[in-house]
Design brief:
Blueprint lengths: L9 H12 L4 H16 L3 E7 L6 E9 L2 E2 L5 E3 L12
Antiparallel strand pairs: 1-2, 2-3, 2-4
């Protein structure tokens, strides 16, 4: 799938992501997931992160994709004021 195609929607999006990750497990699954979600949504960047504190104010990247390539260096950031801010307890 190419980043130059239109964004997939609904079942097409789910099918593309499921097919792209069906044979992977563990860290490989996360790497495949960010790649296929980026392709399916024509997104420049996709991150899968986990909260590194109980309140969800600081996250650590588990897998990332940016501009057609995996992000190889670790990324950590504060969620306050970010579009991806976590809502504790929700």
């Amino acid at each position: 799938m190419s980043a130059t195609i239109d964004r997939l929607r609904g079942r097409e999006l789910l099918r593309a992501v499921a097919e792209g990750t069906a044979s992977s497990v563990g860290d490989e699954f996360l790497r495949d997931l960010v790649r296929h979600v980026a392709d399916a949504l024509s997104a420049k960047m996709v991150l899968v992160t986990e909260a590194s504190d109980p309140e969800g104010r600081h996250v650590t990247m588990l897998a990332g994709w940016y501009d057609g390539a995996p992000i190889d260096r670790p990324i950590e950031y504060e969620t306050r004021g970010q579009p991806c801010a976590l809502v504790p307890g929700e």
